[in-house]
Specification:
FAD/NAD(P)-binding domain; flavoprotein; 488 residues; NAD; 3 domains; single chain; alpha/beta; 25% strand; Pyr_nucl-diS_OxRdtase_dimer; Enolase-like, domain 1; eight-stranded mixed β-sheet
Length: 488
């Protein structure tokens, strides 16, 4: 079977170019790039379609710029905890320097480097808006109106990601609200910032902009921050934000928003009036599937796409949905994991290989069910993998939660004076494996991969006793957790 070639045709009546590939990928973010990388490595000809910047949301408006903003915030906080160093880091952050460094990390919103990478793996980039126009067919309309029809012999992968979801509030568009894009790319520090939401984006951006000099007010409709993690995670992060000067209000809804003489005016459900220079809505995500031609293949425009564990869309043997669009785990690293699975599955099916779809096999995205890790880069950091206690109980597992105060670990005391943090492992008492682990505290983001290995590998508690943590590191919390499980 000839796989790694393209076929070109031009219709003289419409001046529409038709090109045939083995695989067509919609979206050139990290997910689409990884699908293309895997299919090209398998010898399949691959086209990638992108309407914005190659590199996607993560590179320019999410992971990279947000962490570039947060790194000096966390480094300063850590330094202030260390005797002999804290006096050297008095005073405010140099906001212009932080913003300039952030701009460097986004390559000043230029995608030349990412384009070179795509070219280096041998994938063809088609710039323009791509829409499905039937089975295995994508029509790309360029900025100049030129149309190209890309036909996929084997698969089309939808990797278009998600966008910020704004609430339906009258007059909101006239206010010019920030979403995650504006929050990570703003060129000046607002004097006052209202953050609406309690999830990861809200917590991280409140942390960053408060430290950069804004007066931040966080309005959370629910009971607390980081509602998908163990309750103590959001409690510790909220406590730290308030100590830094932010105003965190839980159980607070937004009834109306307006801009009066340049000032944003928020009226809460309790009738309180909050004024700010900018307002960030971090209130959820929606799939970028509203204008990609789903209706031409019998799917609802704007919908999340249901997939099997090889990331193939239900009822369509040629269509894959990878990353945020399938709603399994809206995280870049999980999307890249899915992309590796999808690329391998596409290649296997294209070459007639029997798919090994067993759990934890090369062609099944099993970790998206059992071992999804996440780090929230606040101060303190919050990191979790697998199920929380509540989720494990709701799933019907017989579990027991084991908690340890991280300040009791020698490595934490060395990390900084006044170290505050907490760890929890959720143990399945029947199988004696971990269903989930959560860490909250300075520096714990680097602990979570050990927990991910334990959860994904279903490592028995009895075996974990033989994974000896180095002394004196914060990783010694593993020993403390095992001792607490044994003794209680």
């Amino acid at each position: 079977m000839a796989l790694a070639h393209t076929t070109h045709q031009t219709d003289p009546m419409t001046e529409t170019e038709s090109i045939e590939y083995d695989v067509v990928v919609l979206g050139a973010g990290p997910v689409g790039e990884n699908v293309a990388d895997r299919t090209r490595a398998a010898g399949l000809s691959t086209a990638v379609v992108e309407s914005e910047l190659v590199g996607g949301e993560c590179s320019y408006w999410a992971c990279m710029p947000s962490k570039a903003l947060l790194r000096p915030v966390i480094a300063r906080a850590d330094a202030r905890r260390v005797p002999g160093l804290r006096r050297s880091v008095r005073g405010p952050l140099d906001a212009p320097e932080v913003l300039a460094h952030r701009d460097e990390y986004t390559s000043h919103w230029q995608d030349d480097g990412q384009v070179r990478w795509l070219d280096g793996i041998g994938a063809d980039l088609h710039r323009g808006h791509g829409r499905l126009s039937g089975a295995r067919t994508v029509t790309v309309t360029g900025a100049d109106g030129e149309r190209r029809v890309l036909t996929a012999r084997h698969a089309v992968a939808v990797c278009t990601g998600s966008r910020a979801l704004l609430p339906d509030l009258p007059g909101l568009a006239d206010v010019g609200p920030w979403t995650s894009r504006e929050a990570t790319s703003a060129q000046t520090v607002p004097g006052r910032l209202v953050v609406v939401g309690g999830g990861v984006v809200a917590a991280e951006m409140a942390t960053a902009w408060q430290a950069l000099g804004a007066q931040v007010t966080v309005l959370v409709r629910g009971k607390g921050l980081l509602g998908r993690m163990e309750p103590f995670a959001g409690e510790l992060v909220a406590e730290a934000l308030e100590e830094a000067g932010a105003d965190v209000r839980t159980g607070t809804s937004v009834e109306s928003v307006s801009r009066e003489n340049g000032t944003v005016v928020v009226v809460t459900g309790a009738g309180d009036r909050v004024e700010a220079d900018e307002i960030l809505f971090a209130t959820g995500r929606a799939p970028r599937t509203d204008d990609i031609g789903l209706d031409t293949v019998g799917l609802a425009p704007g919908s999340w796409l249901d997939v099997d564990d090889s990331l193939r869309v239900t009822g369509h043997d040629w269509l894959y949905a990878v990353g945020d669009v399938n709603r399994r785990a809206l995280l870049t690293h999980q999307g890249k994991y899915q992309a590796r699975i999808a690329g391998a599955a596409i290649a296997a099916r294209a070459t007639g290989e029997t798919l090994r779809a067993q759990a934890w096999g090369a062609h099944a995205a099993t970790a998206d069910h059992a071992a999804v890790p996440q780090v929230v880069f606040t101060d303190p950091e919050a990191a979790a993998v697998g199920l929380s206690l509540a989720e494990a109980e709701q799933a019907g597992h017989r579990v027991r939660a084991v908690d340890v105060d991280l300040s009791s670990v020698a490595g934490a005391g060395l990390y900084g004076d006044g170290y505050r943090g907490r760890a929890r492992m959720v143990v399945d008492v029947e199988d004696e494996i971990l269903r989930g682990v959560t860490f909250v505290g300075p520096g714990v983001g680097e602990l979570i991969h050990s927990a991910t290995v334990a959860v994904a590998g279903r490592v028995p508690v009895s075996r974990l006793w033989h994974a000896v943590p180095s002394y004196p590191t914060i990783s010694e919390v593993w020993l403390r957790l095992l001792e607490a499980y044994r003794d209680n």
